[in-house]
Queue: 2 jobs
Job 1
Amino acid sequence: MQATLPTAPAFDRAAERARVQQERRRSAMIDFSVTLGTIALALLVGFLVMLIVGKDPLLAYSSLLSGPLSRSNRTGRWIEDATTLIILGLSVSIPFRARQFSLGAQGQMFIAAMIAAVVAIYLPMPPVVAVLLPLAAAMVVGFLVGLLPGLMKAYLNANEIVSTLMLNAVIVLLYDFLLTNVFTPPGSQSLRSELIQPNSMLLRLTAIFGVNLGRANLAVLFVAILVIAVWALLNRTPFGYEIRTIGANEKFARYGGINTRRTIALSFAIGGAIAAVAGAHLVLGVHQRLIPGIAAGLGFEGIVVALLARNNPLFIPITGVFYSYLRVGGDIMEQEAAVGAEIVQVIQAVIILLLTAQVLVDYVKARSRRARSVSCAA
Amino acid sequence: MRHITKIYPNGVLADNDVTFEVRAGEIHALVGENGAGKSTLMKILYGMERPTSGQIILRGKPVTIHTPHEAIALGIGMVHQNFMLVPSFTIAENIVLGAEPLRGAFVDRRAAIAATTRLAQEYGLSVDPEAVVDAVPVGMRQRVEILKALYRGADVLILDEPTAVLTPQETHELFAAIRQLVNAGKTVIFISHKLREVMEISDRISVMRDARMVGTIDKREADEHLLARMMVGREVFLDIEKPPAQRGPVVLKVRDLEYATEAGVEVLKHVSFNVYAGEILGIAGVEGNGQTELVEVIAGLRAPLGGVIELDGKSIAGLTPREVRRAGVAHIPEDRLTNGVAMTLSIQENLIVDRYAREPFTRGGLMRPAEIARNSEALIEQYAIRAPDGTLPVGSLSGGNMQKVVVARELSSRPKLLIAAQPTRGVDIGATEFMHEQLIKARNAGVAILLVSADLSEVMSLSDRLAVMHDGRIVAIFPDARGLTEEEVGLYMLGTKTMTPAEIERNW
Amino acid sequence: MEQALQVIFSATFIAAVLRVTTPILLPALGGLVAELGGVANIALEGIMLTAACAGVLISVATQSEWLGLLAGVAMGVLMALVLAFFHLNLKADVILAAIAINILASGSTIFVVFLLTGDKGSTSALVSKQMPFVEIPLIRDIPLLGPIVSGQNLLTYVAFIAVALVAVFLYRTRAGIHLRAVGENPEAARSVGINVRAQQYLALALSGLLAALGGVYLSMGYVKFFARDMTAGRGFIALAAIFLGGKTPLGTMIAALVFGAAEALSVQLGNLRVPNQLVQMIPYVATLVALVVYALAQRQRAIARQRKFRQAQAT
């Protein structure tokens, strides 16, 4: 549609490139500020809600915002939660990059926790192997549980949102059933399995640093490895190229010769394997046994973490650390100010809504562009 | 319409101080290249876009038209280039859509059918009111569109490139209908870039170029060359020069190819032909007669039900798209901007979709950014793609440059066979020339080219040999595309004439 | 086994099927209207939940079930309009926005219930009202049919009447036809002067209304309290019902009845000392199996059609 005038100047590639790169840097800055602004706005909404319901928002917010740093064991809780959330965010980012709305992380964590626990409780193993084997078993099962809705979507075009949520429900009930009837030792007072063997327990940070860091443990190392692995997978392997191409335009991917069905199914499965690491972390590092609802309420948290990071694995640690801070702060707020921690869910929902509202982001960009051209003119 | 200017929010100037006058009861053609601003001007008249500045005067009075609804109320109707019909609704339902006759609180279906029948008879536009739109041919869908406008009491009818999807014979019928409409007192604005048709049907002709109105002339004062000059500001060669074909051995052999859609509709019926190295085999035909499916079956995007597809003597029938590409087939797809590129991926990444997993782009399981960048720099240079940087998303390029990305990728794969589907649809004359040059260059270098195009004059002037498809069959193959007339080919396209199987086989 | 069969073919069982189908059928009809209007509404779950909660709380406050119903429906429509605003005006991805609505619903209902009762689990400590159960004279006395058709909750009748109303609306009224036109080809609808956005707002508002009725039924009919996350995935089962029902009102109803039967069966089997959790799995497994069977059947049909064409060719 561009009307090119007959006397259009020659195309100056170097100048265009410089202009484009400047534009790109600016755009990235805006994206970053939009994210920060969104978070601030969401916190403000939470603040207003508390004001309206007559709670003391200042007390509540001070425990929300300073809570995780107020005591070392609370900091430990923060590290522990961040570990889980970052792994979950990474898990979600893979199918999301292929534009597949897999919501199966919840179920994948439950079943992975169960498998890791079975291996770690019942199979005697030497050190190191005792950690790696349960982890590997969990990942294999997570992979398979992810693969099922993936195959259903890729080959049968079954709606992945419905199938993953149904699968979650089935797995959670199965977990409950097996915990009640199989894993809880007879005569036990409470509903929980035996402890896993000591060799399988991930070393706690408390033991390393000598300060009470609660249940935070060596799984933070998994995080570092996984971030790099997922980044490399998405950006440096043919499979990652396939995932991103399908996410950008599935028809184009098929036309170009990509086996779209296989890639889509695998994106679910690999997401499942990574979610399984989070599930294994809950057993090997955090609880050291199976407890009821071990991964309850974590279902959608990975989505927020991934979304805030725009599905970029390098940003997920940052958003995961931030978001777990809010979650832990919310729990502390509930104890200290008697405000339900669910307010954090409300804040979470507001963040998603604002971040996906494309028009708002574009509006901010257009505004800043206009402001700049005005300042240039002046 | 006086001094109309339209600047889109993204800064594109689509219409620049355009003044355009239509007299009651005339057939007025509006011509210009793609992107000259004709469609935007008509969308403003029909209330789908608002002008940035300017005025519309209807029957002597200034009017504002902000929605299609207001345009309809003022007696302006529009028939869009891509039909605006609801596929699962019946023809009658489509015609009354938005202005349904009511009985009580409910829509009166019988009245809708009656109104459709009455209008169809009045204007000689025959349709079946109770047929579902999805199941009727293109020509009838277009008549539905015209009836839709008439049902709403349109006095001024805007027809946006109405002949693009019609056979010559259907075009004649359409023109007859247009004349009947004008006789009944209607005014018709006819948008086109086919100069021959414009000369045939219109009373006056307005030409647009680069968002400006170049001028309005009477048909009697106009000829095709004058119009062409006004459109592009220079003489264009309507004839394509090419050296005689150096025909080599058979590259693609197709025999008895059959295909049916998942809905069970048979689309390809015993299709057989050869494409030789160093020649362009054109396939003419009205759209929807199996060409799309033929291309996609050969490219591996659909699985054939039966028959033979051989490339250099090896079967490629039923292989995956990747295997077909590996065997040496390149494919410029019909809908390039939706299937041929991924808008949000970078130019670099778009250029390797058929080869990313191979050396030198991937080694030892890892991709190599330096090689990917080198490939893209080389192709940007070679095909003069106007792109500041290969890491930019393809979506930031203009439409013409996106086309070049597709062509660069497909030709640089060094194919034995190139399938080009509707290669110049929706592109301007500059990009069309580029595309034609590239096709002829590839042919001269010994590539076998299968060209599918609904633009009859294009396919006739580019092809060395010409096949015609009708209703899923090859109904004719002409060993020499030169010297054929559009009317003659048109008879085959409509299925009125068919060569005998023996005759076709001789020309395989 | 014999016992199970006896259970299934009893009038009480069929009455139970209708009871548990209601909170699947209502949101499914809502989702159908949205789907045909061209917007996939994944937020049915959240809409039901807020409606269920608002209904109970207002009925507690006013001691009027009717005001509770009104509040529940108003809340559901409001949530649907929030979704519509973010998707249609602010161009948010409809699936992510709907996920946000679901999170918002889950979090805010628990937050509010905790605030009012100090209990995060349910409102059973509060005295809430229930929508009336309707005894139909004459029919009530017919053997077999009577216990099935009569004595159901008002909203159960509403659900089945709504099937017909939705069908008439979609295929016979101007607004419904415009809505379907918008869903199928928005450009075509716009070109004849139909306001596309207004139609999609209407579609989402109606889906909110119907899903909200389903939510109110759960907390003010099926039981008499609100419990956290009490919708338990029914909003998503409803989505499955739409697809399995071939996107028609009647088909959706039949699919909802199938899911309802699976759930009713699970309740009955629970009485027969089958472990609780395994029984509760039935509706979810049924949905999964139905998804696969439906997809396989569609593919088989396509293959059969192609094969038929081949045979016709051969002869």
Job 2
Amino acid sequence: MKKLTVLFSLMFFVCVANATEDQITFKSEQQKSTYLELTAELRCPKCQNQNIADSNAVVAKDMRVKVKALLDEGQDKEQVIQYMINRYGQFAHYQPPLNVATSLLWLMPIGFILFAVVLQVKRSKSKNDVNVSETGAVQLDSGQLDRELELLLESNTLDGSSVDNSSKDNKQ
Amino acid sequence: MIPELGNFALYIAFAFSILLSIFPAIGLKQNNTRLMAMAPNLTIGLFVFTLFSFACLAYAFLTDDFTVVNVAQNSNSLLPIHYKFAASFGSHEGSFLLWLLMQSGWSFAVAIFSKGLPVDMRTRVLTVLGWISVGFYAYIIISSNPFERTLPYFPIDGRDLNPLLQDIGMIIHPPLLYMGYVGLSIAFAFAIAALLSGNLDSTWAKWSRPWTAAAWAFLTLGLTIGSWWAYSELGWGGWWFWDPVENAAFMPWLVATALLHSLAVSEKRNAFKSWTVFLAIAAFSLSLLGTFLVRSGVIVSVHAFATDPERGVFILVLLTLVIGGSLLLYSLKAGNIKSFGKFSVFSRESMLWSNNVLLVAATMVVLMGTLLPLVHKQIGLGTISIGEPFFNQMFTYLIVPFALLLGIAPLVRWKQDKLNNFIAKPLVVIAISLTLSLTWLFAEFDEIKPLALLGATLFIWIMLFTALELKQTLNKVSFSKLPLSHFSMVLGHIGIAFILAGVGLTSQYSVERDVKMNIGDSAELKGYEFTFEQINNIKGPNYEGWAAEIYITKQNKFVAELHAEKRFYPVQRNTMTEAAIDAGFFRDIYISLGERLPDGAWALRIYVKPYIRWIWLGGIIVALGGFLTLFDRRYRNKKALAKG
Amino acid sequence: MTTKKFNFRLVPLILFVLLLAVLLKGLFSDPRERDSALIGKAFPQFQLPDLYDDSKQHTEKTLLNEAVLINVWGTWCITCKYELPYLAKLANEYDVKIVGLYYDQNYAPEFGQFADIPAIRVEVKDMLARLGNPYQYNILDLDRSLSLNLGVTGAPETFLVDANGIIRMHHMGDVNERIWREKLAPIWNEINQ
């Protein structure tokens, strides 16, 4: 299948006299993808909030050209980013640097998740007696999905809060 | 004359909001039912006059009344009529009036549809809404009046609407988004009312659930349309950029999603109540914070309105009163809330708790990512940018546990379930999901990319579990008896699955090419042949420019003929790229016309974006799920509500 | 344990108050203002022609031995027109040495765009005659390579370079009375003591 596609496109190229030039000729697919990543991650210093790939500002164009030139020189992604940061500051890269202040970006959500997990485990331990009836309702019996379904079907029994329903469930 | 009427109506509405915030409250205090009964009527008045005021503004725009500053600055006689209407909410002032219209509209709906509510509860809710309204109306009248006149020296023509906003998206996106933002004030009002009364039983959750669902569904739709609009209008094929303003709309959505789930637990199991109240406060607070960010100029964004600090200070005072006041109330009163529902570590409650924790953690990521650059600069550490690489990375980590639990949770029983029942099934399902997604990617693409595989696997995982759950449920109940809210859940989850697959596949497999073309040239991308057929001069009502016709074939078969434009809007001196899109269920072809090069050739950017439509399709499915809840008999039946 | 008594429900309120402080401060600062990466570093090496004379070359060494303001500008730049008279005043009345770095927007050989240098010279002469000429001389940065090395985002921008060739200040936007007084003059006076 793939071969067929290639064949077709080859044929097409032969038929159509003028094949199109790319605006930028990349040395390899690898280079192209690095270039695309870089132009998406570098921020246009002149614009409101755009990366250099999407901006038409002169400085964004210059930075794109420079990125390509640096890649051609054999620099890797990190080196190109550092090159731009040295000139335009940390502002030019959409990934924040790691320091005491920015560590909160990672620590706060992670801390919150850990806190919540501990809280939940503690809570369920102290209230381990789930099977003890609440408001005089039901024990958790062997009852498969019934209870859940009953809860779910509250709407069919228009008169009820969940507790009422549970007692109905018991009568069944 | 008409603008004066509109202005006058706005003042009357302001007066109504003041009355609404005072008299029913006195009635509550003195147990005076006549004063309490005023609340719905005052709310109706508030809405009617705001509606009239908005109609006057729209009229001024439609009739090109350039004696009004707002019209002169945001419209033009040559602007097509539907954009003239949209321009009435295209500016800061106009959009704020739209906000008020929505706010009073929601309050109106509460006044009309909550007849089943106990009188004191309804009065309290409307009073809280009245308090919020007073602040907003004062703000618009004092610092953002949309009816200000240019007299006596009015311009002959207006400065036109920003070309970016001249799109169908502009007509539908802001109203939807505001419906969502402002709708969250209802859940907020219910929560505050409950805190004030100290009466927080599960019926409170039942009342506030349909309102929350409605607001959330609007917000979902607003975000979806916004993303689609950015994609089709900005001309570089992006659909989400983690811009501060996008984040400002995304945060309330995340919290509202958490709220929706926690309300379910509060209603059905009488648990999480204090937490639910907090989420209700947080959701609306984040809407307000978003408004502040957009309108104060604190943050550099592509979407921000033109700003001045005086307005910023005013909104900041509003924020302090509304958010600060409600958080203070929460810290004082929430301790009295008792949750009775008990549950074990492995139960539906736990699952929903995890859902909430992950959503709130995601909100923290977005909040910190949006505001930290500001803090960082202010404490003297220098300017930094936080964008795509950071957010994408964090969301990839968060989405995995979220999506995995999302699949299982609906099968887990309330209160307590056996973990043993949930070992074999997930293992089988994950194996099937992996196999299927590998096959899928292998058949369609050249290489397997990890993140695409992740998206596809999670998609199949959720779909399989949802089907499993539906089958189990339908074994017990007949299809027709299944409550609509159950289908809401199913739709919501399927929608998320589509979004995950769409994001995963399109972000990994989109390809693009920057080419230079003369007439007759052709270029190849992903098996498609793009032939540059012709380029023509075009002239629209308020712009001129160039249009390229591109003929697309695949294996010599016709696919589409696309029409990409480059427009110049002389009044705003702005150039716009009107991308040409061949939309498809499995892929989009996207072409944007660049500039004309000195040698006469044209620069073009061509993209092939697989599965990108799934993102918006998913968003629409999710929103449908939300709207479906409203038709659930449980929430529509007055008797049930009253009894609850 | 004292923490046992701590009301966790106060946490959101406390965080909110902190946030308010940040937002309030944010309201009164310019969101676009940002620090430059170049301050404290040596002026980058370069070799570029004079705007009026191709044969005359300038390098970073020509800037040494005396404090100097390097002003990035162009005739296409509207803000520069408002800035020129004030810069001329600085040069004439306060003897501030100002060197122009001419920033051309069009030159982009990758896209087949070249600049018309004779036309630029005419425009520059005309504009300086009308609005005042603050410049000792102008360096022509046709391909904007020096500008890129300086972290220039557009025009106007101004660098304050001391006698040792170290960049002491980088201002983005126009230089006016207030900017000179608050941002540039203190450093200028310090290095010229």
